[in-house]
Amino acid sequence: xxxxxAAFAAVxAAFAAPVSAQWPLRPVGVPxxxxxxxxxxxxxxxxxxxxxxxxxxWMIAGGTIGVGLSGGLxxxxxxxxxxxxxxxxxxxxxxxxxxxxQGPIQYHxxxxxxxxxxxxxxxxxxxxxxxxxxxxxxxxxxxxxxxSVQPFWHGYSxxxxxxxxxxxxxxxxxxxxxxxxxxxxxxxxxxVGWLDHRGSPYTEAMKLTERFRRVDYGHLExxxxxxxxxxxxxxxxxxxxxxxxxxxSELIEFICHENxxxxxxxxxxxx
Length: 271
What we know:
- By secondary structure, this protein is an alpha+beta fold.
- The protein has a single domain (2-6, 51-265), classed as Beta Barrel (Lipocalin), CATH 2.40.128.
- The protein contains four helices and nine strands; from the N terminus they run H-E-H-H-E-E-E-E-E-E-E-E-H.
- It has helices at 2-14, 77-88, 104-109, 262-265, and strands at residues 56-64, 114-118, 122-127, 132-137, 156-162, 165-171, 207-214, 219-227, 236-244.
- The longest helix is centred in the first third of the chain and has 13 residues, at 2-14.
C-alpha cells in the first residue's frame, strides 16, 4: 500500500506549478479592512436580481468527508467489499491518478482550487484538478428520469434557489453496476464510481443533492447528500467548507496526461 501511495504522491507533486509560473495577480472587487487586508467576513456579493453571487475561486477549508460520520458510511455488503479492496490497493485505480474525471465528493475535497462562474441560466464549476467541468442548469428545467439521458461523469445537474441557498440536484452519473462486480472489480470499471479517495463506490442509481450557502464574502458552506440505494443502505450527508482565494489568482491549465507518470510508476504503461 505504501508503494502505491508514494507513487501517487510523486505524481501529484510533479503537477505543482512553481510560483514564478503563475499569471499576474489581478484582484477585483475584494472588500478590505482598515488594515488594507482582504475582509473575508464582509457581506457576500449579490447579483443584479439580489441572489448571492458564488462567482470566484475557492479552496477547501474543512468539513466532514465520510470518515467523520458516526459508524462510517452505510455500505451495502458488496460496496463495503469493493471499498476495502480499493483502499488496500493504496489508490492504484483512483481515477485522479489515471487522468480520469474524479467522483463528485473527490472534487469537493480536492486540495486544488475550483472556479465558480454564475450566470442567470447556468452556473459553471471549473475544477483545476484534471480540468473538470460541471454545468448546473438554472432555467427551470426538471431533473431527467434515471436512464433517460446519456450518463455523464459529473452527472446531470439542475439548480434552484431556496432563499439564499442554492440547491443543486444531480443524477444520471456514470457509475459501477453492482450486477457486474461479483466481488471483483473488472478492468473496464477502473476509475469509475469512486465517490471519495478511499474508494467508496457509487452506482448509476445515485442522486446527489448539494446545498451551497455563501455565508459572507470569504466563506462557502456546502452540504452534500448522497442517495444511492444500490450501494448504501440509507442516504447520508457530509459538509464541506470552502474559502475564497482573494489575491487575484487564476486556475492553472491542468492537462493531466501531459508528463503523466502514474501508469509508468505502477507498471501499467503501454509498451
